[in-house]
Design a protein that fits this description.
Layout lengths: L1 H19 L8 E3 L5 E3 L7 E7 L8 H12 L4 E7 L11 H12 L18 H7 L1 H4 L12 E4 L5 E5 L8 H8 L1
Parallel strand pairs: 3-4
Antiparallel strand pairs: 1-2, 3-5, 5-6
Amino acid sequence: MKKIIISFSVAILTFISSVEAQNSIYDYKVVNIDGKEISLDQFKGKKILIVNTASKCGFTSQYEDLEKLYKKYKDSDFVIIGFPSNDFGSQEPGNNIEIKEFCSVSYGVTFPMMSKIKVKGDDKAPIYKWLTMKSLNGVKNSSVKWNFQKYAINRDGTLHDFYYSITKPMSDKIIEWIEE
């Protein structure tokens, strides 16, 4: 009887964790900077670098290298998706129109930018819950420490790894991941 109860308990826990886990980023929809809902499944088969951004941060100049990286690899099934956030030091105070203009005028950003969201706390956006919770992404837990933290997503929609803000967009580890 004890073995039956243990087996049943294991089966229930396995079922619950499989229902809870969403192992693909393609299960999510987000709103772009122009207010249009988009499904991330439109990026199937591409490597995706997700970055939380801010216009008034010490790392803001990374927009320049992010754009270079995007231009270099966008025709090789690679995309960068920027998610502006005001979660750290109020360094993204603007609205979506102001953010879009800043990115375009200051850095010539052409990679997809999404609407401003929360990347930490109780009201964290669902996409960032997936990025930071192993129970959802199936790979690892993390927390967003500052603006310009980067999350690398494999072609199959699974989380590869994340890189803190100090990791430059054109770093060897990011380039190697894109090219592998």
